[in-house]
Amino acid sequence: CSTRFYDFKVQSMRITKLCNTRNIVTVNRIFPGPVIYAQEDDRIIVKITNETPYNTTIHWHGIRQRLSCWFDGPSYITQCPIQAGQSFTYEFTMVQQKGTFFWHAHVSWLRATVYGAFVVYPKTGVPFPFKDPYEEHIIILGEYWNQDVVELELNTTASGGSPPVADAYTINGHPGPNYNCSNNDVYKIDVVPGKTYLLRLINAGLNSENFFAIANHKLTIVEADAEYTKPFTTDRVMLGPGQTINVLVTADQPIEKYSMAMGPYSSAKGAAFQNILAIAHFQYSGAVTNSVFLPAQLPRVGDNLAVKTVMDGLRSLNKVNVPKEIDTNLFITIGLNVQRCHSKTPKQNCQGLNNGVMAASMNNISFIKPRISLLEAYYRKINGSFTDDFPGVPIEYYDFVNGAPNNIPNNTQSLNGTRVMVLEYGTRVQLILQDTGTVTTENHPIHLHGFSFYVVGYGSGNYDPQTANFNLVDPPYMNTIGVPVGGWTAIRFVSDNPGVWFMHCHLDVHQSWGLGTAFIVKNGKGNLETLPHPPADLPRC
Ligand code: C2O
């Protein structure tokens, strides 16, 4: 294996989109940012230089950072942000990992424009478990905002009200012809009739889970979250932010120009969303370029069945190593709630439901980011920035899925806190993630740093151990999982990677409202099982 060096300059770039010219933050003035290419087991070294006035960090989404926790990237979890004018070099190894990943900023809402693909091939001589595609393409789903996204986050948290809706959905940064001034701002793939293509789909959106489809063409899923799956053929896929899915598509239709479409799933009742689809083109060579192309059909907004169908189709291809026995079983509610305003809350913050402040929580704790990183506080034994008493069950127990939006009981409030859970090295953990419904139920894409986990079960309604069905034979091995709206998901992993690992909703607005927590995984016994020392250039807060 080899070492791959990349030089990332985080910079402002002038861009014109949707009839609007403004500055966005990107890497190396490319949007979407540069692609990292590597092979399994390679060493990756990326020097980040921050040439913007904003704080930044980069997270390598889905890369497990085996014994390299310091380079994981979430701000105030494993590091302080890289401040204006400073730099930091991330160094890690792709230990037994390959497939489609992506990198993104992990501070404020900067990842709205600071993202790019991260493609890792199998080792030399190791084939894909399917026939080599004729060509491959990266397809990144995104959301574009005319406003400064750092301000947008501040306004959203300060106003305490509903999340703002993106100005456009995008495919590889292009909104496509449905949007104003975007007739030529269209991403296009040229295909040769009869050939099979590998599409690496990534949802880099901020706040929207999205469907994707190509008119008249079947998609065969072969990989999800950078792990091979049994081939599963479908008309469309759904990706939560943070998820990646590889599909094969064969150009086996009449020679034409077809549309590829991306649009919202939007599982929460009454939630606002961008009501226009992002369109890209899938164009056969020989097609008349101005011929009317066939529009792609997406499921309707809120189509839970379409989402379940995709989920049911995800099965690990390779032999799995699911923990059969469990040492620690945690029940974690996830959901939106309202914190009541009191005399000290500024008036403008009370624009949530029933004049409260919108909040989100796990087990009714809204996660507040500390002032120095959790990892540094833990490593240097600095007191006062977190407590290790994250509750293993909800601090108040209510009927999860039957919350009444207009008649909020007293227990819809969450407590603020920076409360983490400590795991001994090698603990076999099961998490039951239960969506709650005190404000509205919603599908939440929950992401765990530092691990992949087996998705052993999921269902609608309240989790009931008597009736829950578990798959220990071929469950998918994921890093981000959409917990069904008003339902539950069970995941399992072994805590064999020392460090501090964030777990949060990958809808950024929910993360800002506190939907997260962190695990501290203690050292094991051998040298190979202990947290390394921090790098010399680790940013200071
Ligand atoms: Cu892709 Cu904590 O994030």
UniProtKB/TrEMBL annotation:
Record EC number: 1.10.3.2
Class of enzymatic activity (EC top level): oxidoreductase
Cofactor: Cu cation
A GO molecular function held by the record: oxidoreductase activity
Binding note for cofactor: Binds 4 Cu cations per monomer.
Primary residence: secreted
Reaction catalysis annotation: 4 hydroquinone + O2 = 4 benzosemiquinone + 2 H2O
Keywords of this entry: Apoplast, Copper, Glycoprotein, Lignin degradation, Metal-binding, Oxidoreductase, Repeat, Secreted, Signal
One family name in Pfam for this protein: Cu-oxidase_2
UniProt record, GO biological process: lignin catabolic process
InterPro entries per record: Cu-oxidase-like_N (IPR011707), Cu-oxidase_2nd (IPR001117), Cu-oxidase_C (IPR011706), Cu-oxidase_fam (IPR045087), Cu_oxidase_CS (IPR033138), Cu_oxidase_Cu_BS (IPR002355), Cupredoxin (IPR008972), CuRO_1_LCC (IPR034288)
GO cellular component: apoplast
Record's subcellular location: Secreted, Extracellular space, Apoplast
PANTHER family, per the entry: LACCASE-6, MULTI-COPPER OXIDASE
Function: Lignin degradation and detoxification of lignin-derived products.
Stated family: Belongs to the multicopper oxidase family.
Name of the featured protein: Laccase
